[in-house]
Specification:
Structural class: mainly alpha
Number of strands: 3
Strand content: 5-15%
Radius of gyration: 16 Å
Distance between the termini: 34 Å
Length: 135
């Protein structure tokens, strides 16, 4: 269940947040998807402007990371994404894996691989349905 202002979103209450309205306001659909994926599907969660803002910032960070010429190794990201999603679709855990990779890539610390940004870009698109760029 997704709530708004402390109540369940429902048509009868008239408290729905429509994706079409968000899109009309110029919100990137990938940010909307990330906001929805940030909570586990089995848990109740609230839709807030802060949730959407955090997802927009996350999306921008991920896009900066995959735009780098090199990145932190992609192997652990692929493994982590598969592992988290295989564990009852742990989307928050999968997001955390990509967050860690993006932070390491943008920091430029540790081992860097030339193909890692493209591999992670493809994996995020294929496994989370979040298009970061034309990889």
């Amino acid at each position: 269940m997704i709530g708004l202002d402390g109540e369940k979103m429902s048509k009868s209450r008239g408290n729905l947040v429509f994706v079409s309205k968000l899109r009309g306001e110029g919100v990137d659909p990938m940010a909307i998807r990330l906001a929805l994926l940030s909570g586990h599907y089995r848990t109740d969660r609230a839709w807030t402007p802060a949730l959407l803002h955090e997802a927009q910032e996350r999306l921008a960070t991920w896009r900066r990371a995959v735009a780098q010429g090199t990145g932190a190794p992609a192997g652990p990201v692929l493994h982590g994404l598969r592992e988290r999603l295989a564990d009852d679709l742990d989307s928050p855990g999968a997001i955390a894996v990509v967050d860690a990779w993006a932070a390491a890539t943008l920091a430029g610390t540790g081992e860097q691989e030339e193909q890692a940004p493209a591999i992670v870009c493809d994996a995020v698109d294929a496994l989370l349905g979040v298009a970061l760029q034309d990889c």
